[in-house]
């Protein structure tokens, strides 16, 4: 919540945000000579970020933000709906909103998991949290379906779309080259 407020304040008042960060950089620069050389690069980055925020505040920038929010929904839908779909596949009934909230909790925790992939932490966490609704005997099947939806089905669908887009783009390029020849 706090980070969201800071981001919105930065977007609404980019000049003030730039001035604040420049002031902080100046304070750090005066305290440490070792850091002073790096502050010049930081100041250039701050100015560049300010310029980008000013451009982003235009109607076109706000429209881009709206589209980004709308288009991010499908990318998160598979993670958030996987638990409910897996439960329904196993014939289990539960409140949709409850499962959606639990899946949001699981997804949030997994973003901060300090482990490498394939460690089983995601499966263990999902099994632990979802054991409230899924009987112990069905947990292995639930986890298998949940993992399939979250990983393999997503990769397969994304690969299919990517292949189609690449193929249609390459076909159009071939047609353009053939016409020019």
What can you see in these coordinates?
The protein is mostly helical. It has two domains: 2-57; 73-180. 84% of the residues lie in helices and 0% in strands. It has seven helices and no strands. The protein starts with a helix and ends with a helix. The mean pLDDT is 84.
Structural class: mainly alpha
Q: Helix content range of the residues, please? A: over 70%
The SSE string, one letter per element, is HHHHHHH
Low-confidence blocks of residues: none
* Total DSSP helices: 7
The multimeric state of the shown protein is single chain
- Total domain modules: 2
Broad shape = extended
* Rg value: 24 Å
Measured between the Cα atoms of the first and last residue, the distance is 58 Å
User: What's the β-strand tally?
Assistant: 0
Question: Main β-sheet, in a few words?
Answer: none
The whole-number mean of residue pLDDT values reads 84
Strand content: under 5%
Describe the structure concisely.
This protein has helices spanning 2-12, 14-31, 33-56, 59-89, 96-111, 121-130, 139-180. By secondary structure, it is an all-alpha fold.
Topology (SSEs and partners):
Blueprint: H1 2-12, H2 14-31, H3 33-56, H4 59-89, H5 96-111, H6 121-130, H7 139-180
Give the tags.
181 residues; mainly alpha; 2 domains; 7 helices; 84% helix
């Amino acid at each position: 919540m706090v980070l969201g407020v800071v981001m919105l304040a930065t977007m609404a008042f980019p000049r003030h945000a730039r001035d604040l960060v420049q002031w902080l950089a100046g304070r750090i620069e005066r305290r440490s000579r070792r850091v002073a050389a790096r502050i010049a690069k930081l100041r250039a980055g701050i100015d560049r970020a300010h310029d980008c925020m000013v451009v982003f505040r235009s109607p076109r920038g706000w429209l881009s933000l709206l589209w980004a929010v709308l288009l991010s929904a499908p990318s998160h839908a598979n993670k958030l709906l996987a638990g409910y779909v897996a439960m329904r596949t196993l014939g289990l009934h539960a409140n949709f909103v409850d499962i959606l909230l639990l899946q949001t909790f699981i997804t949030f925790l997994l973003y901060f998991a300090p482990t490498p992939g394939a460690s089983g932490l995601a499966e263990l966490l999902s099994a632990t949290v979802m054991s409230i609704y899924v009987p112990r005997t069905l947990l292995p099947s639930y986890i298998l379906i949940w993992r399939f939806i979250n990983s393999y089905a997503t990769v397969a669908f994304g690969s299919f779309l990517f292949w189609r887009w690449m193929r249609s783009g390459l076909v159009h390029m071939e047609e353009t080259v053939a016409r020019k020849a």
